[in-house]
Amino acid sequence: MASPVPWFLAPRAVSDVEESFALASGEGVQDGSAGGGSTRLVSAYRLVSFFIRLAPSICHHQHRPAARPVLISAGTDSSEFSGQRGGRAEKMATSSGNAVFVLLLSACCLATLACDPNGAKFGYVGSMGPDHWGSLNPNFTRCATGTNQSPIDIATDEAVFDPSMKALHRNYTVANASIVDNVFNIGLRMEGGDAPGCVNVDGKHYRLKQIHWHSPSEHTFNGQRFPLELHMVHTSDDGNVTVVAILYRIGRPDPFFWQIQDKLARLYAEGCDAEKGVPLPAGFVNMLSLRRHAYMYYRYVGSFTTPPCTENVVWNILAQVREMTLDQAAALMAPLEEEYRHNNRPTQPTNGRTVRLYHRFWKKNKRSP
């Protein structure tokens, strides 16, 4: 039997975001009668206002000339999803506008060329882009020849319910962390000898080592791409790797992100003075908001999504989509150079791989694979 499509994966207009969040959290829904276009216009205005407030503290730098805003958009050609509920197909239709999100990144001090004198060893556009990764370095050949590469598109009706899979228990606590501009993404690295928590996958413990973001999302659901994707990278004692991936849509503020937003503003304000790869202490960061119970997630075996594209990575993609504001999304990508603000690798062929599904309420709903 086809796997159910979660209601929160259905494409929605921006004006419906607060309603979807309220449904997920059990909160009341306030009346919102504004049309999708008006709401998107208001969101763009809020983002521009954010940078106007930030500009006085950063525009004194002489390293970077002013540049026009960068427009990043992504979406899906699909206008509807079909889901199975109680053996009955339900179609969730949406307008074409719902399939497109707009993320406006406005910067006062952008570089025409990357500030890093050494430069990254790969990129996302042109001759350094994903189509050429395999030939950029002998160590990157797996990016071109690998058969179990990531990310992938998750076709929810083809995922296989696996009764042997367990709940994704994550015991994250408080971490002493540093923010790192890795040139190609912004990451949060865990400092000190003790990991701030771990995850259990198929009976093996993996310790959290670092997290980083991609925009737009790398994994897609039924062809739908989201504004952001968070990767939580864990390693085991024997060197194996598992990643917990969380997708984001634009909506209410993300409580976890508020803890590092001022550090990101500082990283952005430093401009070319900031040394790439050098950690900026973020202090103690509370990871509790990222351990919310996942009653539904997808698992498959893939690879790193950046060179050298090492395979045998166990991916766990949460079905429940989190939210952050447009301002937060912009602040997160602003420290990166312009050519790395669109830092998602295209989806890769599944090549017959099975995507397994954990669903806490599968038996309760009397569904069968």
From TrEMBL:
Superkingdom: Eukaryota
InterPro entries referenced in this protein's UniProt entry, alphabetically: Alpha_CA_prokaryot-like, CA_dom, CA_dom_sf, Carbonic_anhydrase_a-class
PROSITE patterns for the chain: ALPHA_CA_2
Gene Ontology molecular functions: carbonate dehydratase activity; zinc ion binding
CDD domains reported for this sequence: alpha_CA_prokaryotic_like
Database matches in SMART domains: Carb_anhydrase
A single BP term in Gene Ontology: one-carbon metabolic process
Any matching Pfam family: Carb_anhydrase
Residue intervals of the Alpha-carbonic anhydrase domain: 120-359
Name of the protein: Alpha-carbonic anhydrase domain-containing protein
The species this protein was found in: Eleusine coracana subsp. coracana
Lineage: Eukaryota, Viridiplantae, Streptophyta, Embryophyta, Tracheophyta
